[in-house]
Amino acid sequence: ATCGHGCKYGECMGPNKCKCFPGFTGKTCNQDLNECGLKPRPCEHRCMNTHGSYKCYCLNGYMLMPDGTCASSRTCAMVNCQYGCEEVKGEVQCLCPSGGLQLGPNGRTCIDIDECSTGKAVCSYNRRCVNTFGSYYCKCQLGYELKYVRGRYDCVDVNECVTNTHRCNLHAECLNTEGSFKCKCKQGYRGNGFDCT
User: Fold this and answer.
1) pLDDT number for residue 173
2) How remote is the C-alpha of 69 from its chain's centroid?
3) Are 179 and 157 in contact (CB under 8 A)?
4) What's the CATH number of domain 160-196, 2.10.25.10, 3.30.1330.60, 3.30.750.24, 3.40.50.720?
């Protein structure tokens, strides 16, 4: 079986037919499945969608059970966790609903991990990392835009000379470059391209 468009998170099962791994969907298995939106809901109290999966967490005063349900817990209520808790070897520990969050110094609230500055984020060479609360995403570098080319999304150079987003002088020529542009004063004029006399 060959899948011309490829199967990002899945296997090719027939001519251009992908079988997605659990947690993924779409023709090329490139989309994350939002399990939190499924019926019946996978979590009793709160659900957080993650890349290829999901996490359950409970309201304060409840403890997360292995099956995703929430049980009322006096010990949990006493600890006063931001996102519910679990009991490990008789010890009560607060939980954070995403791998992009970590327990703060007080051991009760969750603080964001900046994946972009810690180097945990993986973005391709023509994309830059943008941190979000609990996660991150990859955005096209400045001077590039996301376009659907030859069956896939890619960051393509913006031709500032054509889109008229350059700041070249009236008496200068605009020259497009990869991810940017240059300005050159026309014949008979002198300057840096932004100022021509």
Assistant:
1) 92
2) 28
3) yes
4) 2.10.25.10
Give SS3 for 79.
helix
Q: Is 126 exposed, middle or buried (0-12, 13-18, 19+ CB in 10 A)?
A: middle
Residue of 50, 196, 20 lying closest to 42 (CA atoms):
50
Answer whether the bond into residue 22 is a cis peptide, omega within 30°.
Answer: no
> Model confidence over 13-46: pLDDT tens digits?
888 899 999 899 999 999 999 999 988 888 888 8
- pLDDT tens digits for range 160-182: 898 887 889 988 999 999 888 99
> Residue 2 in contact with residue 15, Cβ under 8 Å?
yes
Q: Per residue in 44-75, pLDDT tens?
A: 888 888 888 888 888 777 888 777 788 877 77
DSSP state of 8: T
